[in-house]
Structures are given as C-alpha cells and as structure tokens.
Amino acid sequence: MPKWRSALTRANQDRTDSKVRMLLLAVVGLFFWITVFGIAFRVLRYLRSVDEIGNLMAGKVLDVILLAFLSILLLSNIITALSTFFLAKDLDLLIASPVSGVRLYLSKLAETIVHSSWMVALLSLPIFTAYGIVYQGGFLFPFVALAAFIPYLIVPAVVGTAFTLVLVNIFPARRTRELLSLIATGAVVIVVVSLRFMRPEQLAQPEGFKNLVDYLAVLRTPTSPLLPSEWTTAMVMNWLLHVADPMPILKLWGSAAVAVTIGGLIHHKLYFPGFSKAQEGAERKVLRPLRGPVSRLLRSQSPSKREFVLKDLRLFFRDNTQWSQLILLAVLLMVYLFNIKSLPLHSGERVPFRLVTVISFLNLGLAGFVLAAVAARFIFPGISLEGRQMWLLRSSPLDPRSMLWSKYLVGTVPLLVLALIITVFTNWLLHASAFMMTVAVGTILLYTLAAGALALSFGALYPQFGSENAAQIPTSFGGLVYMMSSLCLLAVIIGIEAIPVTSYLRDQRYAQQPVGITPQLVLSGLAVIAVCAAATIVPLRVGLRRIEMMEW
After folding, report:
1. 252 CA to centre of own chain
2. I need a surface site. Which of 252, 334, 374, 439 has the fewest CB within 10 A?
3. From CA 197, how far away is CA 422, in angstroms rounded?
4. Please, what is the Cα angle at 253 between 54 and 119, to 5 degrees?
5. The whole model's pTM is what?
C-alpha cells in the first residue's frame, strides 16, 4: 500500500510534464506493440496455413520465446530481490514494525515480480494477442493467457528470491551485489551459448532431416518438459487448438503454490540473519589504470582533461557491475557473428541479388542498433554517475568542457573499436564487395560518433543523480528518448544510402565494364556526413549548455 500511494503521489505532481511524458510513452509503446504484433501476426498466419506441421511449429516458436523470457526473468529476479529484500530504504521501518514475516515476504515478493517482469509482460502482450487473433481464441482467451502467464512469472521470482536469501547469508549483501553481477553475467553467457548451439534455425530447413518423421519428432518433442515455459505453452496452445488436457494447468498453478510455500519457509529461516549481515560494509579493491600510458597518450591535452579521463577510467574499473558486463558483450558479439555465418547465402544455392542487398543493409541496421544499445548502457549514465559529487565539480574552477570531452572520449573510443569489429567481420562473413565494405565502415563510424554524442547529451538533459544502480539509468525517460532519437537517426542514414548504393551495386553486377562513382552516390555520401556531423556537434553543445546551467 505505501508503494502504491507513493506512485499515485508522484503521478499527481508536475501534471503538465507528467502528461507530456505519458503521452510520449503511450505513442512509443503503441508503435512498439504494433510492430511486434505485425511481425508475429504475419509469421503465425503463414504457419497456420501450412498443413500438418504449422500448428506444431507455432507451439514450438512460443515455447522457445517463453524459454528465453524465463532465463531473463530468473536473472532479473535474482538481482532485483537483493535490492527489494535487503537494500531498500523502507526496510528499517518495516523490520521494526509489528508486521508478520509472511506479509512482509508476500509484499516484497510482489514488488520483486513487478520490478523484474514488467518489460517481459509488455513484450508478451502483442505476441499473445497475435496468437489469439490468428487462432481465433475467442473473448475468453485473454483470461486464459493471463491465467497461464501469472504462475509463469511467480516461479522464477520465488526461485530468484530464495537463491538471493541463501547467498546473502554467506556473503554481506553489499558484496553480494558485486558477486551477483558476475554470476548473472556467467549465467547469461551459458544460456545464450546454449540457445545458440540448439540451432533453432534448423526448424526452418526441413531438408536438413532424413525424412518427415524425424522432423515431426523434433517438433513434437518438448523443449523443456520440466520448466514453466513448456507448461504455459501447452496451456495456451491447448485452448487455441481445442485440446482438453488439464495437466498443464495443474502443473503451472501447483508448482507456483509449492514454490511460494517453500520460498516462505526459506524466508522464515534465513531472512532476519541475512538482513543483519546486510548491514555490514564491504571492502572494495580499486583497480587503477596505468597512469603512465594514459598520460603519454593524452600529453597534448590539458592537465584537467587528462585527470578527468583518469577519473572516469578509475570509476569504470572500480565498479564490478560496469566492467563485468563487457564479458556479456563479448559473448553476444560472438553469437551475432555466428548467426551471420549460419546464413545460407553462400551455401552453393543461388540467392537473389535483392535478398543479398537487403541482408547487407539489415546487417548495417542491426550493427547500429547494437551500438546504440551499448552507448545507452555505458555512455548515457556518465553524467548521472557523478551523483552528489557534481556540486564539487561545478563549484570548482574546472572547465565543464573538459568533463564533457573526457566522458565523450572514454565512451566513444571503445565504441568505435566495437563498431569496426562488428562491421568488418560481418561484411567479411557475408562476402561483401570492397565497395560495400567501404560504405558500411564509413557509415558505421560516422553513426557511432553521433550516437555517442546523443547518448551523452540526453544523459545531461535527463540526469538521474539519485539512482543507486547504473543499470537502472538507461531505462529512465531520458534513456527511452535517446534510443528513439538514435534509431531515428539510423533509419534516416540507411534511407539516404539505400537507393543510390543499391543502384550502384546492381549496375556493377550486370555491367560488362567497371562502373564509376555516380553523382547520386556522392550526394548521398555528403548528405550522410552532414547529418552525422550535425547529430554530433549540436547534441554536444546542448549537453555542455545543460551542464553549465546546473546549479548546486
């Protein structure tokens, strides 16, 4: 109840600004839902038109989606439970109040489910809607989907909470936060690699199986018979296909009830000793970058700029939740490259030229999306991570330009290296021509400079100085606006290049002699340079003006 009242109070404050933000979020959410629904609807409508195996493939797709969501929910609940059960600011009052342990456990469990599951719930809504419309689930289908989805969310929340309770009784909670970041990274690495080597794309290539019987056997075999994702899929598909089988319902709700009961017992035994240990401090080792090499690289810069760069590097390596995510980034990069290599574009079969060109531009768009997301995670929180010490920086005679320059340099240079790795390797795997390689590398470098500037600027416009976790900053309103802006910039760049580059590649493919650079290519290149330069310079100036206007 206090959480609910606090949320209503915050919603009633600053009504004009709140209405604008809610309208913007509603527009973005509606656009997002329509996009996901459109993709899911077309895929499901095609699958349903396939005789014999269409329904089986639709169920298999839903099972794989829910299995991926389940891994995300488990990791999210582990990290969220640490904050809600042990590090929340209201715990001092709640622990001292005459509230029973059961009520405290259920309330904090509900809070953990809401904070860790809202994104999965929003993403699942258009997918379930597409299933209900394509398979004509009827007006009762939303209630059936809700009844299947609620226990699906409860089970990973209870498991994650119980794991956190055990872990906090072994390590202090503030040190456990650092340990959990490494555990979560390792778990995600295992899950991603496991899902990748399952090779679900083989379901789209029946010719890879010896006969139809083997293919149908793979489709009928449960992907995860002992996990809630399988039971949720079975409950939803049984309703849509008019199959009378109560076992998925009993398994779902029975496992949720048993999980909550066992979780309550674990909470009763371990919570108060764990909460007592959570009040202990934690020693922290500081990983200092080498001052000498950095100073030599920046010897042409002023001392204030060098010191800002050194400070930002120390802050990055001091926080385990920051640098440990580089491991996850490296694994996702390997999976992305493996996906590109698995495309059957050069398997000996004739692939249309238009398809190869579309995939090349799609690869450019995906690379830009990855870079924008990485910038949102590492560059956007740069200003917010200064926290309460910002007053010291603003009251000192240090030039704000030096701080902005250091944060842009520390964030954008590694991003440029990542952009080169993604672009060069993926185009090499796609057997792209030298011309397409040059266009892709030049475009992605210009876009990376602009994306870093946009991330830093929106981070200054919408700072979150009171945030306790850097991972929560990109999910704020400013992070959402930044992602929208960076993706719109990416769409504009690809739109400018698409027609001239495609025409040149077509002429080069079918011409008997070498084709020269056309005026359309020159104009599109100049337009891309102008757009990216404006998207880099203007946001940096806006961010600098916002920092100079901060009063402390």
Report:
1. 28
2. 334
3. 21
4. 65
5. 0.65
